[in-house]
């Protein structure tokens, strides 16, 4: 089995194709860890959603959006039945605006 290097593909092209992401629970360290992930070159930070288990994802994503400038922000999974449709839409729209379009909701 050959590698990209064996095929003559420059390392710079191979590395550009890789993106690192990390998944984090919503909690007091989320925004700070998002800042660290951005500094380390991660492409995206994902946050878990489960209202009975974790703090509110929208609050933590909004804080991370204001403390970062490049890293993508994403919801690992949103559970629609935990919030009203209007509350979820409003939260997503606010984070989209605060992040300059870096939000990806799943």
Number of helices: 4
Structural class by helix and strand composition: alpha/beta
Per DSSP E runs of 2 or more residues, the count of β-strands stands at 4
Portion of residues in beta strands equals 5-15%
- How confident is the prediction overall: mean pLDDT? 89
How does this structure look, described?
The chain is an alpha/beta fold and 106 residues long. It has helices at residues 11-17, 30-39, 57-67, 85-98, and strands at 21-24, 44-47, 72-75, 103-104. A four-stranded parallel β-sheet has the order 1-2-3-4. Helix 2 (30-39) packs parallel to helix 3 and helix 3 (57-67) runs parallel beside helix 4. The longest helix has 14 residues, at 85-98. The radius of gyration is 16 Å and the shape is elongated. The N and C termini lie far apart (35 Å). The mean pLDDT is 89.
């Amino acid at each position: 089995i050959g590698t990209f290097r064996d095929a003559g593909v420059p390392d710079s092209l191979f590395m550009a194709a890789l993106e690192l992401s990390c998944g984090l629970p919503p909690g007091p360290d989320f925004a700070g860890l998002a800042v660290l992930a951005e500094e380390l070159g991660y492409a995206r930070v994902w946050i878990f959603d489960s209202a009975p288990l974790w703090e509110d994802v929208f609050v933590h994503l909004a804080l991370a959006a204001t403390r970062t400038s490049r890293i993508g922000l994403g919801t690992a999974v949103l559970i629609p039945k935990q919030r009203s449709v209007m509350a979820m839409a409003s939260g997503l729209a606010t984070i989209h605006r605060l992040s300059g379009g870096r939000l990806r909701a799943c």
